[in-house]
Amino acid sequence: MTGIYNKVGVAGGSDHGTGGEVRRGGVLGVLGAVLTFLSVLFILLTFPLTAWSCVQVVLEYERAVIFRLGRVVKGPAKGPGLIWFIPWLDDVQKVDLRTFSAYLCPHQVLTADSVPLLVDAVVFYRVVDPTLWFTRVQNGCVATLWLVQASLRAALGAHTLTDLLTQRSSIATRMEEVLHTSSWLWGVQVQRVEIRDLRVPISLQRCLAAEAEAERMGRAMMIVAEGELKASRTLRAAASELSPVALHLRYLQTLASVDSSASIVVWIVPTEILQ
């Protein structure tokens, strides 16, 4: 029974706290509306003097997010052009919408077949929602780079070394799709990730070079063997079509081509001629 009473008391206290927060929020909202009205009235009454302090220029590639009394002003980001704000109530934050490029320093990655690699990459990203960029993440640039590095390590660790060397573009495309889904919550769009270099250890480079050389030698021997096989088949076909008289004439032609200045000439006479 005591536990039940305790639970009921805690629940009642929670409801009371929620109601207090609602009332407090309503009071602050009314106070903020009053301050805004008085500020606008003051600006209108002293318009020639306060006009310059209430105007700010936003460039074509920029957008401005206005925080009024700590809250984001409703609506999309302001700009480009002239924007109006209340200097003593508003905090104007600008963001660049152009594409940024960042270089990821070489870091070690372990592939699926336990091969250590040093990988460096280049990331291209841009801000697509300035409000989320300021309200969802504290340092968007650093967070985006850390996210790209973690995604790159996970993507490369799921493939073997052979896949990384032969399917680099497809792996980069799949990684971009994953990053696009993850970074959209921050108002960022990762446009492209380029893997610049994959550095293999020296010992493994020697093994790969020996393996490649052995494969090339094997292919060369196979080509030579196929050529000899085709030549033997061609000679067999030619010999089957020649008559015995043609073979004798060919033999005599060979004897006639022997150099007469030689001191010793060995003639090999087939038994068919003697017969």
From TrEMBL:
Pfam families named in the record: Band_7 (PF01145)
Q: Which UniProt keywords apply?
A: Membrane, Transmembrane, Transmembrane helix
Superkingdom, natural source: Eukaryota
| CC annotations in GO | cytoplasmic side of plasma membrane
Where, by residue number, does the polypeptide cross the bilayer? Answer: 27-49
Q: Looking at the keywords, is Membrane present?
A: yes
Q: Domain named Band: which ranges?
A: 53-212
UniProt key word Cell membrane: no
Question: Which family is this sequence assigned to?
Answer: Belongs to the band 7/mec-2 family.
Its biological purpose is as follows: Plays a role in the regulation of glomerular permeability, acting probably as a linker between the plasma membrane and the cytoskeleton.
Give the matching PANTHER family: BAND 7 PROTEIN-RELATED, ERYTHROCYTE BAND 7 INTEGRAL MEMBRANE PROTEIN-LIKE
Q: What is this protein called?
A: Podocin
